[in-house]
Specification:
By secondary structure, the protein is α/β, with parallel strands linked by helices. Helices cover 33% and strands 16% of the residues. A hairpin with a 2-residue loop joins strand 8 and strand 9. The chain binds uracil.
C-alpha cells in the first residue's frame, strides 16, 4: 500500500533536539507529495519518514475546518516535547472535562506495544492507562506470557482524554489525538502492536476490522506485526470469552519468540 515519496533523510534522531516544528501544508486530496499520491496511509507507520510524519486529514475536527481535506507534514517530537505537548493539549473538547491526560506507560524501548481506545474513569483519575478492573485483568494476562508494563510492554490509547460516560471516542476526537500515538509508536519502534478491542483495531489495523472473527490474527504492515485481541472490559462483561483471549496471548508469545529467534 502506501506511497509517499521520500521525505528527507533517514538520519533518525539527529534532528529531534531542534524541537517542535510544523509546516502546515493543506492541499486537495489529490495533492501529490514529492510526485507521489498518498494512498491509504497507515495511522501509525505508513506516514512516518525519517524525522517527518505525514498527517492525512479529511474533514471534521477543529482544524483545519469541516469539509476540508489535505496533508500536513510535521516533525517528529522527542519524548519530552511530545509528552509536554500532549499534557497541555486542547485540540478537542475532551480536554475540557479531563482530570488527567493519559499519555502512556511502559519502557520506551519496548518491542511490544498495546493500544486501547481511551481512558475510563480510573485512568482519568490516575493518569495511567488500564488501571481499573480491566487493567488488573490485562496485567494478569500479560504476566502469563512474561510481559509487564514496567518491564517490556508499552501501553497507550488512541485518545488520551476520557470520553464522557465512557462512550466510544468520536472520529473527530481520534483524528485530533492520533498524532500523539503515531509519534509514540515512531519513537518506540515496536516489533509488534496489539490492539485492545474493536475501536483500536479499526483505527490501527483496518477500518472494517471484525473483532469477533479476526482477533488473534496477525497482519503485517511494513515491518510491524499487528493483531487485535478482545478488550479486557468485554472479557469482564463476558467471561466466557476469556479462553479465546488467552489463546490470542499465546499466539502473541509465539510471535515474540519467533521474532527473537531471528
Ligand atoms: N479502556 C481503554 O481502552 N483504555 C484504558 O486506558 C482503559 C480502559
Amino acid at each position: 500500500g502506501l506511497s509517499v515519496g521520500r521525505l528527507g533523510a533517514r538520519s533518525s534522531s539527529a534532528l529531534l533536539p531542534y524541537g517542535f516544528f510544523m509546516v502546515g501544508l493543506y492541499a486537495s486530496s489529490l495533492f501529490p507529495v514529492n510526485g507521489h499520491f498518498i494512498q491509504n496511509p497507515c495511522p501509525i507507520f505508513g506516514c512516518t519518514r525519517g524525522n517527518f510524519m505525514l498527517d492525512w486529514h479529511k474533514g471534521g475536527g477543529r482544524a483545519p475546518g469541516p469539509g476540508s481535506f489535505g496533508v500536513r507534514f510535521f516533525m517528529m517530537l522527542n519524548w519530552n516535547e511530545l509528552e509536554a505537548q500532549c499534557l497541555s493539549c486542547q485540540k478537542c473538547a475532551l480536554a475540557d472535562k479531563r482530570t488527567n491526560v493519559v499519555f502512556g506507560v511502559g519502557p520506551r524501548d519496548a518491542e511490544v506495544m498495546f493500544i486501547g481506545e481511551g481512558p475510563g474513569e480510573n485512568e482519568d483519575l490516575q493518569g495511567e492507562p488500564f488501571v481499573g478492573r480491566g487493567g488488573k485483568l490485562l496485567d494478569d494476562m500479560l504476566e502469563l506470557i512474561d510481559l509487564d508494563r514496567h518491564k517490556n510492554v508499552y501501553i497507550a490509547n488512541i485518545v488520551k482524554c476520557r470520553p464522557p460516560q465512557n462512550r466510544d471516542p468520536l472520529n473527530t476526537e481520534q483524528d485530533a489525538c492520533i498524532g500523539y500515538l503515531r509519534n509514540q509508536a515512531a519513537l518506540i519502534r515496536p516489533k509488534i502492536i496489539v490492539c485492545l478491542g474493536r475501536i483500536a483495531a479499526m483505527r490501527i489495523i483496518k477500518p472494517d476490522f471484525k473483532i469477533t472473527r479476526e482477533h488473534g490474527q496477525f497482519f503485517k504492515k511494513g515491518n510491524i506485526y499487528m493483531m487485535a485481541t478482545l478488550h479486557p472490559a468485554a472479557l469482564l462483561r463476558n467471561p466466557a470469552q476469556k479462553p479465546a483471549a488467552f489463546d490470542d496471548f499465546l499466539k502473541l508469545r509465539d510471535k515474540i519468540d519467533e521474532l527473537q529467534a531471528d
